[in-house]
Amino acid sequence: MRSDGSALNLRRWWRSAGFAWAGIRHAYRSQANFRIEVWAGVLALVVAALLRAPLAPVALACALVLGLELVNTALEAVVDLASPELHPLAKVAKDAAAGAVLIASAGALVVGLVVLLPPLWAWVGGWG
Ligand SMILES: Nc1ncnc2c1ncn2[C@@H]1O[C@H](COP(=O)(O)OP(=O)(O)OP(=O)(O)O)[C@@H](O)[C@H]1O
């Protein structure tokens, strides 16, 4: 009985992960900003790994930006569904969600500069 329940939960979790992955793929295909953020994050992580800089803050900053971009995409879809015509509240919702992504991106840029610049500087200095 117990193992049946666990197997069922695992199957349900796997199914939910499939839906989540479909959402990520949709955002990647339809949102140019999401594609830019994905590859900027990959680049930042590769540079951090090559410079032996701490990976955790860079990964966390990337996850925050990508996660908020997905929430922004979801909110845009819901607003377009609920309010296809222009409406001041639809504007507030979309602008606020876009603002959240902007703030997270600015924070990620600061994290990237603080974590990556010192080892990059030392590496460049090593060549001089
Ligand atoms: N239904 C609406 N009512 C009022 N203003 C809207 C509405 N839809 C969009 N806007 C305004 O236009 C801006 C751009 O909206 P849009 O849906 O094109 O998103 P976007 O920022 O271009 O995102 P993306 O390019 O990722 O789809 C919004 O931030 C908002 O200010």
TrEMBL record:
Could you tell me what this protein is called? Answer: Diacylglycerol kinase
Which UniProt keyword terms apply here? ATP-binding, Cell membrane, Kinase, Lipid biosynthesis, Lipid metabolism, Magnesium, Membrane, Metal-binding, Nucleotide-binding, Phospholipid biosynthesis, Phospholipid metabolism, Transferase, Transmembrane, Transmembrane helix
Q: Where does ATP bind?
A: 12, 76, 85-87, 94-95
- Give the stretches traversing the membrane: 34-52, 100-124
As to how many cofactors bind and how, the note says:
Mn(2+), Zn(2+), Cd(2+) and Co(2+) support activity to lesser extents.
Q: Where is the active site?
A: 69 (proton acceptor)
Q: Give the originating organism.
A: Deinococcus marmoris
- On whether Membrane is a keyword of this UniProt record, the answer is yes
**What is an example of a GO molecular function annotated in this UniProt entry?**
kinase activity
Query: Is the keyword Mitochondrion assigned to this protein?
Result: no
Cite the binding residues for a divalent metal cation: 76
Q: Which Gene Ontology BP annotations are present?
A: phospholipid biosynthetic process
Q: Where does substrate bind?
A: 12, 69
Upper lineage ranks?
Answer: Bacteria, Thermotogati, Deinococcota, Deinococci, Deinococcales
Provide the Gene Ontology terms for cellular component.
plasma membrane
InterPro entries xref list? DAGK, DAGK_sf, UDPK
Q: Where in the cell is it found?
A: Cell membrane
Q: Name one Pfam family in it.
A: DAGK_prokar
The record's similarity note reads:
Belongs to the bacterial diacylglycerol kinase family.
Chief place where the protein resides:
membrane
Q: How is it placed in the membrane, per its record?
A: Multi-pass membrane protein
Q: Which cofactor does it need?
A: Mg(2+)
Q: Say which domain of life the source belongs to.
A: Bacteria
